[in-house]
Amino acid sequence: MNRRGIALPMAIFALVIVGVLVAAAFFVGRQEQLVGRNTIRLQQAFAAAEAGAQAQAAAWDPTVLNRLPAGDTVPFAGMLPGSGWYRGSVRRLNTLLFLIQSEGFSPDSTARQRVGLLVRLRPIELAVRGAVETATPTDLGGAVAVDGADHLPFGWTACPPAGAAHPGLRVTTSGLVTGSGGCAGLGCVSGSPPLEADTAVTTVALGQVAGIPFDSLRAWASKVIPAGSRRIEPLATAGQCVTSDPNNWGSPLQPSAPCGGYFPIVWVDGDLSINGMQGQGVLLVNGDLDLQGSFEFFGPVLVRGSVRTQGTGGRIMGGLVIIQGGPTPSEIHGNSSVQYSSCAVERARVQSARVSLLRDRSWVNLY
C-alpha cells in the first residue's frame, strides 16, 4: 500500500493542534493578566475607600461636624497620589452617632468600592449639679449674683426647654460660704434650694470627673495654654475660625459667626488672669482663676485653686466648680454672676467631644 501522502496531513494536523494549544495558552495567560490587573484595581479602590473613611475620623472637625443637625450630611473628597481617589459623606444619625460612607476608585476610575464606618462622639463626662460647687471657703460680695435656675443662652438655637432649677450653691457645710456687702446673708443666691449643704461635696469628689482624676483631664484638652494673663476673644480669617489661636475660645455671644460652633476643652497649666472678652467650651484651670473686664464664659469651669472676680467681674453661664481652693478664700465680688445652664453645659460637652470607632461592628463593606 502506498502511504506517502499521509505525512503532510499529519504534519498540518499537528501544527493545528500546537497552534490551538499555543493560542489557548496565550488566551488563558491574557485572562489571568486581566484578572490580576482587575484585582489590583479593585484593591486600590478598596484601599482608597478605606483611607477616605479613616481620614474623616482622624481629621474630625468639631466646628463643622459636631454641630451638624441629625439627618444632615457633609460631603468630602480626596486624592491618593498614584493609588486612587475617594469621595463620600458624613451623616449624623443622632446626637452622638455618625455614619461615614466612603466610595473609593482606582487611579484610572475603572474599579469602585464602598465602605461604611460608624463612629460616635465621646463627650467629657461632666456632671454640673449647681451654679457654684465648692468644698473650700468662699466669700460672695458686691453686686454678685449666683442663680441655680436653668438659663438659656441668648441667641442660641436648638436648646431644649429650660429644665428644673438646681441649687445656687452646693457646699460641704452651710458656714463654708459667707456673704458681704450686697450679698450679706447670701441674699444674692437663688436656686432650688438657694444653698444645699451636702457632706458628699468634698475636694476629692469635686476633683473626680466620672472617676477620672483632675490631673488626667489634661489629656482630654484640645487646647493647652501656659499660665499668665490673657484677653480671650474669637478670631476668624476669611470667614474661617482660627482655632489654633490660644486666645480664641469661640464666640458664644455671636453663635452664627465663624467661631460660633467652636467649643474647645481648655487646660491652663497654672494661674490664669482673664481681662475680657468671651469664650465657650470647658475650662480647666490647674491653679487660681482671676476674672475681670466683663469676661463672659459659657460652659462648665473647673478650678483647682481659688477664684477671684473684681470690678465688672465676669459672667459664667454653665457652672463653676472650685476644687481645692488656695491659701486664701475664693472671693466672688464685683458686678459678676454665675448662672446654671444645662444647654451651655451639654453644648460644651457635645461640641468639644472627640470621635471614636464603635467597639463592635463599626465597619462594613457596602459593595
Count structural domains: 2
Q: Can you give the helix content as a percent range?
A: 10-25%
Low-confidence stretches: none
Instruction: Give the percentage of residues in beta strands.
Output: 35-45%
DSSP strand tally:
26
Largest sheet: 16 strands, parallel
Radius of gyration: 32 Å
Distance between the termini: 70 Å
Please tell me the overall pLDDT: 91
* Structural shape: rod-shaped
Number of helical segments with 4 or more residues: 4
The class by helix and strand makeup works out as alpha/beta
Query: How do the SSEs run, as a string of H and E?
Result: HHEEEEEEEEEEEHEEEEEEEEEEEEEHEE
Description:
- 19% of the residues lie in helices and 37% in strands.
- It is built from 4 helices and 26 strands.
- With 367 residues, the chain is of the alpha/beta class.
- It folds into 2 domains: 51-123 and 355-365; 132-351, no CATH class.
- The strands form 4 sheets. It has a 16-stranded parallel β-sheet that branches.
- The model has no long low-confidence stretch (mean pLDDT 91).
What attributes characterize this protein structure?
single chain, 367 residues, alpha/beta, 2 domains, 16-stranded parallel β-sheet, 4 helices, 37% strand
